[in-house]
Amino acid sequence: MRRLLACLCLAYAAALAAASDKPVNAGPYVPSPQSVVADMLKLADVGPGDFVIDLGSGDGRIVLTAAKVFGARGFGVEIQDNLVKLSNEAAQREGLADRVRFITQDLFKTDISQATVLTMYLLPNTVNMLKDKLLAELRPGTRILSHDYPLAGWIPEQYVQMDLEDKVAISGVTTTLIYLYVVPARVAGSWHAKVPASVAKGAVRLDLKQQLTRVSGSARVGGREMLLEDVRLKGEQLSFRLPGRGGRFSGTVRGQAIEGMVEAGGVKSPWSASLR
Predict the structure, then answer these.
(1) Tell me, what's the pLDDT at 88?
(2) Rounded CA separation 178/201 (Å)
């Protein structure tokens, strides 16, 4: 009953936030142990070309580490003014203020579209209340790191479990879970594909179905319909096989177009598709 009431309260709080300018408190301040911060960022392969956004940034340790150790840029979003002040002071003190900043803002209303990596250590209900926002605002290929709590319905690219003594003071147990997700491109629909003559003569129609990171579909080749095999989608990268045709198709999704290569018999040939 208490869990149900907590869920209802969080949902009600989010609804109120949508109707007002008052920030939503998404949960108590609980920092990720410093011993796991670098491991999280390594898991997402953070580098100098990345822009890291931390939702619920607390004392700023994740964004500060991303800048200081991995050369990234970014910002943190936090509801508590005192923590934002401390984070910005730390950025100044460590000579990172030109690359990172921290703001007091409602994370549900923050523009996160600039992120190439997004991190969060939030209550499980809050994590899942953010799912629609993540899909709507983050570009395909953006990496999402969630500490301890998964995104329901999403399949993580990687999942790491470790035991840390630092977690006992936070959760009462040593178990630490890190989930890495990659925002998928939108591929559902009917695609008109141009493939090498060695694979099929004439155009091929691809009909793709998608549920977040899960993709399945079929191809119509020469009037015959066949199910696609081994379909995979990671960010903007789509790959599959045509049964009985040999070779593997791989391509990059760019909005309503796909361009890539099909490899068969050691020979690579270009292929492309456009959304009908």
Answers:
(1) 98
(2) 47
Query: For position 27, what pLDDT does the model report?
Result: 55
Per residue in 11-31, pLDDT tens? Answer: 444 444 444 455 555 555 666
- Partners of residue 28 on adjacent β-strands: none
Q: How many residues does the chain have?
A: 276
Q: Which pTM was predicted?
A: 0.84
Residue 199 — very low, low, confident or very high, per pLDDT cuts 50/70/90?
Answer: confident
Its domain, for residue 97, covers 24-182
Structural domain contains residue 266 = yes
Q: What angle do CA 197, 200, 204 make, to 5 degrees?
A: 115
Higher-pLDDT residue of 220, 170: 220
Phi, psi of 93 (to 5 degrees): -65, -35
Mark which of 143, 166, 182 sits at the end of a domain. Answer: 182
